[in-house]
Design brief:
The protein has about 180 residues and is an alpha/beta fold. It is about 35% helix and about 25% strand. The chain binds S-adenosylmethionine.
Length: about 180
C-alpha cells in the first residue's frame, strides 16, 4: 500500500459513514510501512470498533484478515471478502480456539480491552499465534490509560522481543511493534 492509497483510505469514504479512523495518520502510516516490508498474508485484529483499521489491514493482507470484537454490530465500514469478523470476548477460550484454527498470523494488532489484565491476556493468548519474524502491534502505549503502556514496558524489560518500535509522533497515542522471535 503506497502513501497515496493509504491517504485515500484514511481520508476517504469509509462505506458511506461519517466515522474517521481513530488513529494518528502519521503513526499509522509508520506501521503500514513496516507491514509493506513484511508482506503479511494473514492478519489478526483484536478490537475492531466500526472497522477503520480493519479497512487498512484488508488492503495489506494478501489472504485473510480475522477481526475480533465484543460487538461486531458496530462495524459500519464496507469490508471486503478477505475479512472474517468474529464476535466475542477475546479472553473466551472458544474465541481463542477459532483464532488459533485460522492462524498462524504474520501480524497481530491488539487494540481491544485496554485494562492491564485484558491486554496481558491478549498478549499471552494470541502472540504465540504469530509466526516467528511476524509483528505484534499494540495501540495506545502512550495513552493516559495504564494497560497497554505497563504491559509493553514489562515485555521490553523481559527482553522477550528482538525489536521494539514505538511511534507516537503527531499527537498519536503510540503504537508499539514487537517482532515475534
Ligand atoms: C479502541 S476500539 C478499536 C479501534 C480500532 N482498532 C480502530 O483503530 O479503528 C476498542 C474495541 O475493542 C473492543 N473490545 C473491548 N474489550 C474487548 C474484549 N475483551 N474482546 C474483544 N473486543 C473487545 C471494543 O468493543 C471496541 O470496539
Amino acid at each position: 500500500m503506497n502513501r497515496k492509497e493509504f491517504d485515500q483510505v484514511f481520508n476517504g469514504d469509509l462505506g458511506g459513514m461519517n466515522e474517521k479512523i481513530a488513529q494518528d495518520p502519521e503513526e499509522l502510516w509508520s506501521v503500514v510501512q513496516r507491514l509493506n516490508n513484511l508482506q503479511p498474508k494473514r492478519i489478526l485484529e483484536i478490537g475492531v470498533n466500526f472497522g477503520g483499521t480493519t479497512r487498512i489491514w484488508q488492503e495489506i493482507a494478501s489472504e485473510l484478515v480475522i477481526a475480533l470484537d465484543l460487538d461486531i454490530s458496530k462495524v459500519t465500514v464496507a469490508l471486503s471478502e478477505n475479512v472474517r469478523l468474529v464476535e466475542g470476548d477475546s479472553t473466551d477460550p472458544e474465541i481463542i480456539a477459532i483464532a488459533k484454527e485460522l492462524g498462524p498470523y504474520d501480524f497481530l494488532f491488539i487494540d481491544g480491552g485496554h485494562t492491564y489484565e485484558i491486554a496481558r491476556a491478549d498478549w499471552n493468548n494470541y502472540s504465540p499465534m504469530v509466526r516467528p519474524g511476524g509483528l505484534i502491534g499494540f495501540h495506545d502505549v502512550k495513552a493516559p490509560i495504564p494497560g497497554p503502556h505497563t504491559l509493553v514496558k514489562e515485555i521490553r524489560e523481559a527482553g522477550a522481543c528482538c525489536e521494539l518500535f514505538i511511534d507516537g509522533k503527531g499527537g498519536g497515542m503510540g503504537t508499539a511493534l514487537i517482532t515475534r522471535i
